[in-house]
Amino acid sequence: MKTVDVVDADSHVMEIPETWEYLDEEFRDRRPVVARAEGLTTMPHMDAWWLIDGQIHPRLWGRGTTVSGTPLTMTFARGKTFTLGSQGLTDIEARLRDMDAYGIQIQVLFSSILFHRVTEDPRFEAALMRSYNTWMAKRCGERPDRLKWAAVIPMRDMDACVAEVRRARALGAVGLMIGGTAGDRLLHHRDLDPFFAAACDVDLPVCVHTGWSCPGLTQTCEDPYAALLLSFTLPVLMAFFSLTAGGVLDRFPRLRVGFLEAGAEWIPYMVGRMDHYHPVIRDIGWGPHSKKRPSEYLTEGRLYVTCEAEEPLLPQVLELVGEDHVLIEGDMPHAEARDTGIQELRERADVKEDVKRKILRDNAIAFYKLS
Question: In sequence order, which residues have a C-beta less than 8 Å from that of residue 125 and are 6 or more positions away?
Fold first, then answer.
């Protein structure tokens, strides 16, 4: 076994049909099912989808493109170095072996399909998320010392949202996964305040994860490359705006938030642009809604960001965010997962040794309160 002093702050599970076994009775007939196709000439390895409310997910062609390696019946999933049992957590020991091979002691796991907007029905969406959360509690409960998980939270139904936040804490979740927007609403919309209040009440961190949460943005992209770089990633930047300039951190001083899987190099750009416009907007009288400049919130110790080992601007990010607030992401078993990532970070000459330890382990323990 390689070194095991690493906490992977953001990896994944690939959903399987059993994920939906805990759906409420009224939604059983609408449970997601697997559809397959043969003879595809474009991306033939992506030959299976979830069929949900008459629509396929992921959608790999045309307006509204999204990307995923689930369901596991697709050829793409079967070609990965990770076994299907490891990807879908049907073989917990296989996942632990993969973690050992990467030198990971603990993983915090997130959904793969539910950062897609898979239904237009908020009540059904909430039911899907409840089923997923129940399933994940059972899966990770087999090895709670090494497998942690973040609950998926239905942000388009506030009653269901607040109830699920409380249930997530009872189920053993260590974080609350949301997208960068709540559908077509930015996260500083006052209707969403009950969620942030509930997160503070149960003392769970809000994990803003990349994903196709913004319908209008999703519809602008027509191929996987654009979908990953734009409609998948940009909602995280929109969330950063909302939480700082939108006043959410002012209204909820006990809130802690992580921005996951967008890399970390966007932080200098966003902070620079937002600080640039802040006095202009203030002097004209157009706002902003926050009490401070965005950069000032980074010094309060409530904001965290995941990084990837090869990012050239990591030293600048550490200077802005603080060395106690950058986490390592592994992204297992997604296509971006690299078995060299941890070693690449260890070998960097521009990051101090004690800071590397914080990125690889200590900061995630603090963010998720794992100790």
Answer: 117, 118, 119, 154, 156, 157
Count of domains for the chain: 1
Domain annotation covers residue 347: yes
pLDDT in tens, 72-117: 999 999 999 999 999 999 999 999 999 999 999 999 999 999 999 9
User: What distance in Å separates the CA atoms of residue 68 and residue 71, rounded to the nearest whole number?
Assistant: 8
Beta strands in the chain (DSSP E): 7-12, 33-36, 48-52, 55-57, 106-110, 147-152, 175-178, 181-182, 185-186, 206-209, 257-260, 303-307, 326-328
Distances 228 to 146, 170, 172, 343 between C-alpha atoms, Å: 29, 34, 31, 25
Per DSSP, which regions of 118-166 are E strands? Answer: 147-152
135 found inside a domain:
yes
Single pTM value for the model: 0.96
- How far is residue 64's CA from residue 221's CA, in Å, rounded to a whole number? 6
User: CA-based angle 207:370:232, to the nearest 5?
Assistant: 20
Query: Which residue type is seen at 177?
Result: M
Confidence of residue 338 (pLDDT cuts 50, 70, 90): confident
By three-state DSSP, how is residue 316 classified?
A: helix
Give the separation between CA 258 and CA 209, rounded to whole angstroms.
Answer: 8
The answer to whether residue 222 sits within a structural domain is: yes
CA distance linking residue 11 with residue 8, whole number of Å: 7
- Contact by Cβ (8 Å): 126, 154: yes
pLDDT digits (tens, 9 = 90+) for 149-160: 999 999 999 999
| Angle between helix 193-202 and 158-171 (nearest 10) | 20
The domain spanning residue 300 has which CATH number? 3.20.20.140
Residue 102: give the domain boundaries. Answer: 7-20+81-368
Most confident of 40-49, 145-154, 278-287: 145-154
- Give the length of the chain: 371
Task: Tell me whether residue 93 is in a domain.
Answer: yes
The phi-psi region of residue 252 (left if phi > 0; otherwise alpha if psi is between -120 and 50; otherwise beta) is beta
